[in-house]
């Protein structure tokens, strides 16, 4: 059995070929094709998405890959229950298993899909089928799917959206649905909100669908307007390191909900529909101190995103370092979503020569990113390992990511 599709940076074509072979072992015939969808890193713009604000993520060179084959016995009549038995069965398998070795497999009938019916990771592909095949949706036949991903799970790089996006681009092609990328972003958001039950925004899917090599995606979460911004990291002698702390603090969910509530409360108190409508220099003294800090983060973070876009367009990559650092300070002090491990990662990376660093993702654990002169990569890596060891903390995973291509067909 091939476990070959694990190494990041491995040529996509070779990886797809290995996945096809594995598919044939698992299901007894070849897939119809292979598709990939990358994870993402959010360069800057944290906790702004649900405030109708700005974000600047980029797709990374790590991706979920799916081999898919539609059921040949699938015929008309699914909706009436008159079709052949088994034709609307979806079989899923992943090379990733929550605890350890072997394939994790799942199976469901499309006719039986309803929110809450799919457990574990199968909820992500099932959610995509659910929104496509909904009441006014299209006729989705059963299919077989084999998934292999190089996006680390739970590191804040959106491994879950990579699974959803890989599934939707595959079905869009195979069923000739003609969906454009913004439409697929909205559908996967609905899959996540309505089926998986996570109140997430549009950023992660958009980055995975619309990212391009050497670019970041400047996204206005209010209008969904997306623009590519140059991010030629290597050409500037720089590298982006992800420092995955491996910690997930238990108050993450409650903390996220509480921050959203604070923002809504702040907007209402300021007479605005959302914090996007509050001017940057607004007087926050009428708010209670905690709400004022939350609001101040969102307003200042939106400005930092705009500043970052401006510098990148001017070709001043190193110039964004100070904005990354300011973003982290704001998330730590005003928004209070950092944690000791993220602060240690950021402080250590900066001390070891990073030009900028910040926590990325929702916070309370997960990953930090550091923008590092390429020649200093090893120095930063070693310093982080040493700092965590000195505090008796588990060694973080440190790896470089490159702004990569968005989702598409590989084979
Ligand atoms: P992340 O920040 O990585 O998106 P989440 O908790 O949102 O973290 O999503 C992780 C979940 O996504 C996993 O628990 C699993 O259900 C699903 N997932 C991600 N990658 C895979 C994979 N390769 N195979 C199966 N499920 C996966
Ligand atoms: Mg996720």
Structure description:
By secondary structure, this protein is of the alpha+beta class. The protein is built from 10 helices and 12 strands. The protein has helices spanning 12-27, 123-132, 159-174, 181-196, 203-210, 252-269, 289-313, 321-333, 340-351, 377-390; strands at 33-44, 54-70, 89-94, 104-109, 143-149, 215-220, 226-230, 238-248, 356-360, 365-373, 397-401, 408-409. The strands form 2 sheets. Strands 1, 2, 3, 4, 5, 6, 7 and 12 form an 8-stranded mixed sheet that branches. Strand 6 (215-220) and strand 7 (226-230) form a beta hairpin. Helix 4 (181-196) runs antiparallel to helix 5 (203-210), helix 6 (252-269) crosses helix 7 and helix 7 runs antiparallel to helix 8 (321-333). The longest helix has 25 residues, at 289-313. The chain starts with 11 loop residues before the first helix and ends with a strand. The relative contact order is 0.16. Residues 1-9 and 77-83 have low confidence and may be disordered. Bound molecules: adenosine-5'-diphosphate and magnesium ion. Residues 158, 160-161 line the site of magnesium ion.
- Structure classification: alpha+beta
Mean pLDDT: 93
Low-confidence spans? 1-9, 77-83
- Based on the structure, what is the oligomeric state of the protein chains? single chain
Secondary-structure element pattern, one letter each: HEEEEHEHHHEEEHHHHEEHEE
Small-molecule binders here are: adenosine-5'-diphosphate, magnesium ion
The total of beta strands comes to: 12
Pfam families: GalKase_gal_bdg (PF10509), GHMP_kinases_C (PF08544), GHMP_kinases_N (PF00288)
EC number: 2.7.1.6
Protein name: Galactokinase
Keywords: ATP-binding, Carbohydrate metabolism, Galactose metabolism, Kinase, Nucleotide-binding, Transferase
């Amino acid at each position: 059995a091939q476990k070959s599709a694990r190494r990041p940076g491995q040529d996509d074509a070779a990886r797809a070929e290995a996945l096809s072979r594995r598919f044939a072992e698992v299901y007894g015939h070849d897939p119809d094709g292979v598709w990939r969808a990358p994870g993402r890193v959010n360069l800057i713009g944290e906790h702004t998405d649900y405030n109708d604000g700005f974000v600047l993520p980029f797709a990374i060179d790590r991706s979920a890959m799916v081999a898919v084959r539609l059921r040949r016995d699938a015929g008309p009549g699914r909706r009436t229950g008159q079709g052949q038995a088994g034709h609307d069965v979806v079989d899923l398998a992943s090379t990733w298993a929550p605890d350890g070795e072997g394939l994790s497999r799942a199976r469901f009938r499309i006719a039986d899909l309803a929110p809450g019916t799919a457990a574990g990771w199968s909820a992500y592909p099932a959610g995509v089928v659910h929104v496509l095949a909904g009441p006014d949706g299209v006729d989705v036949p059963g299919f077989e799917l084999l998934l292999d991903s190089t996006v680390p799970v739970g590191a804040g790089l959106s491994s879950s959206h990579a699974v959803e996006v890989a599934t939707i681009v595959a079905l869009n092609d195979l069923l000739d649905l003609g969906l454009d990328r913004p439409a697929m972003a909205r559908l996967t958001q609905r899959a996540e909100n309505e089926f998986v039950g996570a109140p997430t925004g549009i950023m992660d899917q958009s980055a995975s669908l619309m990212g391009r090599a050497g670019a970041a995606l400047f996204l206005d979460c209010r209008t969904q307007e997306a623009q590519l911004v140059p991010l030629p990291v290597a050409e500037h002698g720089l590298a982006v390191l992800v420092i995955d702390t491996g910690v997930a603090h238990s108050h993450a969910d409650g903390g996220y909900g509480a921050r959203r509530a604070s923002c809504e409360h702040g907007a209402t108190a300021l007479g605005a529909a959302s914090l996007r409508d509050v001017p940057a220099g607004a007087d926050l003294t009428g708010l209670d101190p905690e709400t004022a800090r939350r609001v101040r983060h969102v307003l200042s973070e939106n400005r930092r995103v705009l500043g970052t876009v401006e510098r990148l367009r001017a070709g001043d990559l190193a110039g964004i370092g100070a904005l990354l650092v300011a973003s982290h300070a704001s998330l730590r002090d005003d928004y209070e979503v950092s944690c000791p491990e993220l602060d240690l990662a950021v402080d250590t990376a900066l001390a070891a020569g990073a030009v900028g660093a910040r926590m990325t993702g929702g916070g309370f654990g997960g990953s930090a990113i550091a923008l590092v002169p390429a020649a200093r990569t090893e120095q930063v890596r070693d310093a982080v390992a040493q700092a965590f060891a000195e505090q008796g903390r588990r060694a973080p995973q440190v790896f470089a990511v490159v702004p990569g291509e968005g989702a598409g067909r590989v084979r």
